[in-house]
Design a protein that fits this description.
Layout (H helix, E strand, L loop, with lengths): L8 E6 L5 E8 L26 E8 L4 E9 L4 E8 L8 H13 L11 H7 L7
Antiparallel strand pairs: 1-2, 2-3, 3-4, 4-5
Amino acid sequence: MPTPITTPEHSLYDHPEWPYIIHVSCIPLGLPRGDPLRQRFDDHTISVPNVNGSVWFTVEDAATNVVAHATFACGPADVQCDTITVDPGHQRRMIATAIYHLAASIFAASVVPSANRTPAVVAFWGTRTQIP
């Protein structure tokens, strides 16, 4: 069973040998309409199954330029990516892979492909069926 997100939490992932910082916002399901976090992290915009909360990622390079965004949600049994965008100049640098692994770790559940797949996402998944 996945681990649900029960309280909002924000964290940073920064590795000294990797030139990116990943900002992670874990958001529980169903924030009240008046909650200020809802303006930035509205789970009503997520189209993949979401019963255990959502995780919103923003990735910055060393110069603090935003180079990637992603949103994941967790259904009853697994995690799916709702959206992911990595700037072309930063693709093939393990950003998407790191984000997918973080999402799996946060929910303690595998990430499986969603129906929301751009050509870049199809190429990313290749023959994989899940990311543990």
